[in-house]
Amino acid sequence: MKPAIREETAADRLAVREVMTAAFGSAAEADLVDRLRADGDVAIALVAAEGGRIVGQILFSPLRAPFRALALAPVAVLPERQRQGIGSALIEAGLARATAAGWEGAFVLGEPAFYGRFGFEAGLAAGFQSPYGGPYLLARALAGPLPARSGRIDHAAAFAALS
Question: What are the boundaries of each domain within the chain?
Fold first, then answer.
């Protein structure tokens, strides 16, 4: 059965925490999600639900950037459901919602080979200053080309706790 992708609700939060903890092997990313919610720094939060069970989650938070941009982080899928396309479906659905909502770009800190499949490129992020700069900082334009190719990007304050 293929999970349904839908907006996260308050009733999903405990299950999302369990997915995050299982997927990452610690509570750090679950704590990040909780703090982003508490700080009002959630632009898009989606879950993959299968028969009433949450099997995956993705979150996008606003960045301070030279244009309307989002940070994709985190995305998680229960370990026993990984490598079945659920994470990819969450990423594609999240990017589609971001584009429809008028966001102009998205950044992610991740594996270039994986995120490159979704249009993220290190070259697009290279001109931006960020504490997370380097070969794993990737960017993707959402609606036409990025309005700027350089400048400073700052993630929501909650990300500092992960360092």
Answer: 4-162
Instruction: Fill in the DSSP letter of residue 61.
Output: E
- For 101-154, write each residue's pLDDT tens digit: 999 999 999 999 999 999 999 999 999 999 998 999 999 999 899 999 999 999
CA pair distance 1, 87, nearest whole angstrom: 15
Tally of CB atoms within 10 A around 58: 27
Is 4-162 in CATH node 3.40.630.30?
Answer: yes
Are 1 and 49 in contact, with CB atoms under 8 Å apart?
no
Taking the C-alpha atoms of residue 124 and residue 107, their distance in angstroms, rounded to an integer, is 9
Which residues touch 29 (CB under 8 Å, ≥6 apart)?
A: 20, 21, 23, 74, 76, 162
Strands (E), 8-150: 44-50, 53-63, 69-77, 105-109, 128-129, 137-141
Instruction: Note the pTM of the prediction, 2 decimals.
Output: 0.95
